[in-house]
Automatic annotation (TrEMBL):
Lineage, broadest ranks: Bacteria, Bacillati, Bacillota, Bacilli, Bacillales
Pfam families in the cross-refs: Cys_Met_Meta_PP
Enzyme class: lyase
UniProt source species: Bacillus gobiensis
Similarity-based family: Belongs to the trans-sulfuration enzymes family.
N6-(pyridoxal phosphate)lysine modifications at: 199
GO molecular function: cysteine-S-conjugate beta-lyase activity; pyridoxal phosphate binding; transferase activity
Annotated EC: 4.4.1.13
The protein's name in its UniProt record: cysteine-S-conjugate beta-lyase
Gene Ontology terms describing biological process: methionine biosynthetic process; transsulfuration
Taxonomy, superkingdom: Bacteria
InterPro entries in UniProt: Cys/Met-Metab_PyrdxlP-dep_enz, Cys_met_metab_PP, PyrdxlP-dep_Trfase, PyrdxlP-dep_Trfase_major, PyrdxlP-dep_Trfase_small
């Protein structure tokens, strides 16, 4: 019914717009862990909240609809979603992972899955030839992240899906940076889309959550079994916070993306900045592929200063951005990947990925763009004096 409305409208006007029993314009938070069975012979839809809960179901149906899937899953964190999806693999299987992968996913693959006999290789997924070259007879999953974290590398989603299908592998894609507002991987043939809903979907730095959405009903059933078996489900209060955050996803992301683009252009012209990574800059090597598979450039960018000392000086001078791990919130968040998101990655692995000691990642919030530029301008003064322009 509601599927004819545009994405923006469907964020608000969907099957969970009002509560069927009371008309409440907010999904009820159903705290029950268990459900009374009125009939001895025939049990109701819900029996125990790990297996299913009405509030969580509302969120799961919402993410499934927004991503264009048949079924959604809500987990206690992004890593819980990602790790549960990896449980589809068995001993002896191989997973091909994008080289620029989220630090926590890197750790899961290299320090946990390996102990269960699941092999991995990392490849530069901006290069399809590299992907093709590294698919093995036992490769079961190709794991993408695009734009990647934190250097915003672009993977050709359709190209990887084609290779995966030709080789009988599944594809997973971490869509945290784009959200379904800007990129719908299931429509491009991806099998499982994963999210840290802690970021843009929640949007307010107040909840940890992970989501997954799947298009194929059989695969959905397998993932459901794993969600119920592993049990890392999202609590109902947190489900409600994500549902509330989702209502403003489009407006937040539009505003933040505009600001990110302005900041990227500003950094690009600044003498103290060595490199700027943002898919919305025409100089970005993946700009045209990104345009072909997404609806926007997003709110995250990274930029590189001379070294750690320059980073320290600039961070000390800045007044507006929160200096913190995480991204995707209403307040701008500045992160230092070398010591935050990628601290679990050895230095040489980091530097291979461009994550140098001078790299900062910025997630633009909804502040006035001119205030953010003003703030960065005064902070970059602290390191500009040592440059001869
Ligand atoms: C934050 C993040 C994760 C992990 O999510 P958590 O909610 O922190 O567990 C995974 N992928 C990306 C791209 C992220 O930014």
């Amino acid at each position: 019914m509601s599927n004819n409305w545009s994405f923006d409208t469907r964020l608000l006007h969907n099957e969970h717009k009002t509560d069927g029993s009371t008309g409440a314009v907010s999904v009820p938070v159903q705290h029950a862990s268990t459900f009374h069975q009125a009939s001895f012979d025939e049990f109701g839809e819900f029996d125990y909240s790990r297996s299913g809960n009405p509030t969580r179901q509302a969120l799961e149906e919402t993410i499934a609809a927004l991503e264009g899937g048949v079924r959604g899953f809500a987990f206690a964190s992004g890593m819980a979603a990602i790790s549960t999806a990896f449980l589809l693999l068995s001993k002896g299987d191989h997973v091909l992972v994008t080289r620029e992968v989220y630090g926590g996913t890197f750790r899961m693959v290299t320090e946990v899955l390996n102990r269960f006999g699941i092999e991995h290789s990392f490849v530069d997924m901006t290069d399809l030839n590299e992907v093709a070259l590294h698919i093995q007879p036992n490769t079961k999953v190709i794991y993408m992240e695009t734009p990647s974290n934190p250097t915003l590398g672009i993977t050709d989603i359709r190209g990887v899906v084609k290779l995966a299908r030709a080789n009988g592998c599944l594809t997973f894609l971490d869509n945290t940076f784009m959200t379904p507002a800007l990129q719908r991987p299931l429509d491009l043939g991806v099998d499982i889309v994963l999210h840290s809903a802690t970021k843009f979907l929640g949007g307010h730095s107040d909840v940890l959550s992970g989501l997954a959405a799947v298009k194929d009903p059989d695969l959905a059933q397998e993932l459901y079994k794993l969600q119920n078996s592993f049990g890392a489900v999202l609590g109902v209060q947190d489900c409600w916070l994500i549902l509330r955050g989702l209502k403003t996803l489009q407006v937040r992301l539009e505003r933040s993306s505009q600001t990110a683009k302005q900041l990227a252009e500003y950094f690009n012209g600044h003498p103290a900045v060595k490199n700027v990574y943002y898919p919305g800059l025409s100089s970005h090597p993946g700009a045209s592929i990104h345009k072909s598979q997404s609806l926007g450039d997003g709110a995250v960018l990274s930029f590189e200063l001379e070294n750690e000392d320059a980073v320290r000086k600039v961070v000390r001078q800045l007044k507006l951005p929160v200096f913190a791990v995480s991204l995707g919130a209403v307040e701008s968040i500045l992160s230092y990947p070398a010591k935050m998101s990628h601290a679990s990655m050895p230095k040489e692995e980091r530097e291979k990925r461009g994550i140098t000691d001078g790299l900062l990642r910025l997630s633009a919030g909804v502040e006035a763009a001119e205030d953010l530029i003003k703030d960065f301008d005064q902070a970059l003064e602290a390191v500009s004096s040592s440059f001869t322009v």
